[in-house]
């Protein structure tokens, strides 16, 4: 059996390839989100057998209604002989084929001639959709759609971010979104309403990045309808691609004549039937449209026989002026989706591409050799940029094509790790196929013939020129403008079938396109590189030099400026649409990559000094506080240049525990964000205090907060500015947060109001899945609490736990919250509002100040008390304390008298070498063993202070702290929450040193251990 390399084109064509079918659930009823059919008559609402909502309703000759599966199962069990009677009235039907759908019995085509026309239409659509192209367009290469179709993850709603990002940046973001929002929707259920939706859905807009599977979803929907399997309440499905509509954009049509152009069988259908039947128009590939859709125009049509431009026909249909009962389904890449006004769309959905398990399943099915599949999967996972791109099915196919070729023909060769390497190998593989298949060459012959070079150079020029214009599909006029012969382009498409394609559209007009946007961007970068290498001309400059001037400019300094200008151009692009192009261009500058293209590139490329200058320039740009997306792409650019020094430096600091946020440069902060977001480990819990407890650090690490499931931001000196930033996170489509802890920050009422703006946006769009919100000790009063209650009242929320303790809410507001906890419309299960009062409106942790009293009965004889027992020092002589069972006889330690409860805070000044500790009261006091010292056992936790450094200890494990030393330190304990934090006090501000997150099982007591010549003073 042939392999199944399914390549999803970004284009909305009928010849896209698709990965093998995966064994996963198809129904959309997962997670309890049941769907109900739309538009059924009242009398068709209930099955006479199962008494449930009718599914695929059919009626017997006597007029009673059943689910098709129910009546079929009933007859199979009760009438095996084939004599079928109605379960409700007993009337017999001569044959089971007499079942009628809702449409056939009511508004459906009763005329036998019309019925025949519609059957012809179904057969035509079935023939059009049932087979798709794999590999090339040669005879015998088409595969059954149902054999390779994968139930893609389609969700309700759309990411706002993707409209302002390059699609590869969207993939980066989506790859960190471990929890997919909402239940998946089968493509067949795209017009079926969710329980919370009121009324029928008339217009659906489905978004998805290039190659994600939009067209395959359309084909599957249409095929299932044509085969009578799904959506039989629809009389006619009309599948129209914008690619084909472009061909008649200058013509005048009525809707009826337009349909007859694309569907000749409609010549026999009278105009009045279009208004009676239930029609579904599918417009595929809005991003490929060259029509000017003007939804503000007053020129609208209401009759199917009125003639106008194609643009007016479409806007009238979408707005509902023309055939208001017709269903409309539009697919688009996200960047073009805003052409349709939101008020015209009933539901927005998004095709999300492959999840991580689907990527692995693809390669397992693609390669029958399990060891080979495992090796390839492991390699893809280890190369982060490749793993991210594999979210797109077409890239999985490209990667599989390349890796299979290398493993088969060049065993032992290093596998490509960067995108540039992958696409160079892909180009080489296709050139090799051409050489053997079309030129009659042998495997060992040189890949690049003069003809092949000319073809690739022509395709590169086309790719670049059209990319600059924003065109992803090209017509004959586009090729002519680029100086490319149409006949030559047809030859190219016939030879390089897996790079460049040609389709015959309406009237056999030719349409050309690259198999994926990334292939076009790679060839565009190759063209720019080749042009500069040969002539010194920089195509990225607005005013290009003449050939005579460029001969003198092609020097090392010109090379450096060439790559620097490319970096600048990419950074200036507001939506990142040059980012992937830049990666390819920089990758092509490496000597190792140019070696792979020996024969195509006649001159060797950039010097190592040029590459180093480019690397340094990129690092300088990273230091300029770029946006997160720009910064991440610059790190990917460094990766394409094989420079990972900045990232490795931070990784080493993280692993050794020597990372100091106080000394990080802007570039190092960006590297830290890149590392955390690129990690293959899930960002389940992000604790800001591990890096810094400052608002500046929070704002730098905000993308990491957004990607985390649980964000611990307590005690990090955050205020209104931070809440404003968090508000945007909570309202974001890609927000992963289910738990947010803002306790002990100066949030105040103004900050709560900012948070509520984000909660409102997120909850309205069902993006926000926050279940736990902690605002304890945030100086919130009745006013701030009112804002929070209003936001949650307006949007029924899944919030289960709300902590507003240690604030001053007022009796009325606390009672109001309590009533909502008991309200069944709220999901709230745990509400904490005590303790409360005016005293908790004090800023900072000092509001939890706890007066320490040394327990004299525990003080070691090596320690001397003074200043009314508020100071202790390690004495030169043993003290004459009385014997006591609680006294530390061996170690120079002591405990305080009162056990800790709730939240407590204290400060101490120290000299010498001191352990500032908390311990369970049962710690051993009499033995000599090391385990009796604070921090050396599992009953105590210590901050070890010396003139040279700090470190923390627990259970005999040491963790060094990279920080300058202060001789005043503070301790904060939240006993119920299991939080123990150590701070140094500098100029009256608290600088976080370390936090233990644990569960305290016994009462805690403050304690100290002092070495000789050391002292502690309590405050």
From TrEMBL:
Domain B30.2/SPRY: 832-1019
Major location (coarse): cytoplasm
Subcellular location: Cytoplasm
SUPFAM superfamilies: Concanavalin A-like lectins/glucanases, RING/U-box, RNI-like
Domain called RING-type: residue spans: 47-89
PANTHER family named among the record's database cross-references: NACHT, LRR AND CARD DOMAINS-CONTAINING
Protein name according to UniProt: Uncharacterized protein
Gene source species: Nothobranchius furzeri
Lineage start: Eukaryota, Metazoa, Chordata, Craniata, Vertebrata
């Amino acid at each position: 059996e042939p392999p199944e390399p399914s390549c999803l084109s970004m284009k909305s064509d009928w010849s896209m390839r698709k990965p093998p079918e995966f064994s996963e659930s198809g129904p959309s009823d997962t997670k309890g989100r049941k769907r109900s059919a739309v538009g059924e008559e009242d009398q068709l609402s209930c099955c006479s057998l199962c008494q449930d909502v009718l599914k695929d309703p059919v009626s017997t000759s006597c007029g009673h209604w059943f689910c098709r599966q129910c009546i079929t199962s009933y007859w199979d069990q009760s009438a095996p002989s084939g004599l079928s009677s109605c379960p409700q009235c007993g009337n017999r039907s001569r044959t089971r084929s007499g079942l009628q759908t809702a449409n056939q019995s009511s508004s459906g085509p009763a005329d036998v001639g019309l019925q025949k026309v519609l059957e012809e239409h179904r057969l035509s659509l079935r023939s059009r959709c049932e087979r798709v192209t794999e590999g090339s367009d040669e005879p015998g290469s088409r595969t059954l759609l149902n054999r390779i179709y994968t139930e893609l993850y389609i969700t309700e709603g759309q990411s706002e971010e993707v409209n302002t990002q390059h699609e590869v940046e969207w993939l980066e973001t989506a790859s960190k979104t471990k929890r997919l929002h909402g239940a998946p929707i089968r493509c067949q259920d795209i017009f079926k309403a969710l329980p919370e939706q009121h009324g029928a859905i008339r217009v659906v807009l489905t978004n998805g990045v290039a190659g994600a599977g939009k067209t395959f979803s359309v084909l599957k929907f249409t095929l299932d309808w044509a085969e009578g399997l799904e959506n039989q309440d629809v009389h006619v499905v009309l599948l129209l691609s914008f690619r084909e509509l472009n061909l008649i954009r200058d013509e005048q049509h009525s809707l009826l004549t337009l349909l007859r152009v694309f569907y000749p069988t409609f010549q026999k259908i009278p105009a009045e039937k279009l208004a009676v039947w239930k029609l579904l128009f599918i417009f595929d590939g809005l991003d490929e449209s060259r029509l000017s859709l003007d939804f503000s125009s007053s020129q609208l049509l209401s009759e199917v026989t009125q003639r106008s431009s194609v643009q007016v026909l479409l806007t009238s249909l979408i707005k509902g002026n023309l055939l208001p009962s017709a269903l409309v389904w539009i697919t688009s890449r996200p960047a073009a989706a805003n052409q349709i006004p939101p008020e015209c769309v009933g539901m927005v959905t998004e095709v999300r591409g492959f999840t991580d398990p689907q990527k692995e399943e693809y390669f397992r099915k693609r390669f029958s050799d399990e060891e080979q599949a495992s090796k390839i999967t492991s390699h893809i996972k280890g190369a982060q940029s490749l793993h991210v791109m594999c979210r797109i099915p077409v890239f999985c196919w490209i990667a599989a094509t390349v890796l299979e070729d290398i493993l088969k023909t060049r065993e032992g060769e290093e596998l490509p790790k960067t995108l540039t390497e992958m696409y160079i190998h892909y180009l080489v593989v296709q050139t090799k196929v051409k050489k053997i298949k079309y030129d009659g060459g042998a495997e060992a012959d040189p890949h690049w013939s003069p003809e092949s070079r000319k073809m690739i150079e022509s395709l590169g020029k086309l790719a670049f020129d059209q990319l600059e214009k924003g065109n992803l599909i090209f017509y004959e006029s586009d090729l002519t403008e680029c100086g490319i012969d149409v006949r030559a382009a047809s030859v190219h498409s016939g030879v390089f079938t897996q790079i460049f394609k040609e389709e015959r559209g309406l009237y056999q007009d030719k349409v050309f396109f690259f198999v994926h946007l990334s292939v076009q961007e790679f060839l565009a970068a190759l063209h720019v590189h080749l042009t500069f290498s040969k002539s010194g001309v920089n195509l990225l400059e607005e005013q290009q030099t003449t050939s005579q001037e460029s001969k003198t400019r092609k020097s090392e300094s010109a090379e450096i400026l060439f790559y620097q200008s490319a970096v600048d151009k990419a950074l200036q692009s507001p939506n990142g649409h040059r980012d992937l192009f830049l990666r390819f261009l920089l990758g092509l500058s490496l000597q190792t990559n140019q070696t792979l293209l020996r024969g195509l590139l006649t001159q060797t490329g950039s010097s190592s000094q040029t590459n180093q200058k480019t690397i340094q320039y990129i690092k300088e740009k990273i230091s300029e506080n770029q946006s997160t997306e720009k910064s991440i792409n610059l790190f990917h650019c460094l990766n394409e240049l094989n420079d990972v020094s900045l990232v490795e430096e931070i990784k080493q600091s993280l692993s050794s525990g020597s990372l100091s946020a106080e000394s990080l440069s802007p570039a190092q902060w960006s590297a830290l964000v890149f590392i955390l977001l690129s990690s293959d480990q899930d960002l389940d819990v992000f604790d800001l205090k591990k890096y810094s407890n400052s608002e500046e650090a929070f704002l730098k690490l905000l993308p990491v907060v957004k990607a985390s499931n649980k964000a611990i931001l307590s005690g990090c000196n955050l205020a209104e500015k931070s809440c404003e930033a968090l508000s945007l996170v909570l309202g974001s489509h890609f927000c992963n947060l289910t738990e947010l802890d803002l306790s002990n920050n100066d949030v105040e009422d103004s900050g709560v109001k900012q948070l509520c703006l984000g909660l409102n946006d997120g909850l309205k769009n069902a993006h926000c899945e926050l279940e736990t919100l902690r605002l304890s000790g945030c100086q919130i009063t009745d006013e701030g609490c009112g804002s929070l209650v209003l936001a949650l009242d307006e949007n029924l929320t899944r919030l289960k736990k709300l902590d507003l303790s240690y604030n001053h809410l007022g009796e009325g507001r606390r009672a109001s919250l309590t009533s909502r906890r008991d309200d069944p419309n709220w999901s709230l299960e745990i509400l904490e509002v005590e303790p409360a009062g005016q005293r908790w409106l004090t800023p900072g942790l000092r509001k939890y100040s706890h007066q320490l009293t040394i327990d004299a009965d525990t003080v070691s004889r090596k320690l001397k008390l003074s200043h009314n027992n508020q100071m202790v020092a390690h004495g030169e002589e043993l003290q004459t304390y009385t014997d006591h069972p609680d006294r530390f006889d061996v170690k120079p330690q002591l405990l305080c008298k009162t056990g800790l409860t709730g939240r407590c805070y204290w400060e101490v000044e120290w000299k010498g070498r001191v352990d500032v500790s908390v311990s369970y009261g049962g710690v051993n006091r009499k033995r000599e063993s090391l385990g009796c010292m604070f921090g050396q056992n599992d009953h105590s936790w210590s901050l070890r202070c010396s003139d040279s450094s700090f470190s923390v200890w627990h259970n005999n494990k040491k963790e060094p702290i990279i920080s300058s030393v202060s001789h005043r330190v503070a301790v904060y304990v939240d006993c119920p929450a299991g939080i123990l934090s150590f701070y140094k006090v500098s100029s009256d501000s608290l600088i976080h040193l370390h936090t233990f997150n644990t569960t305290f099982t016994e009462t805690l007591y403050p304690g100290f251990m002092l070495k000789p010549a050391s002292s502690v003073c309590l405050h």
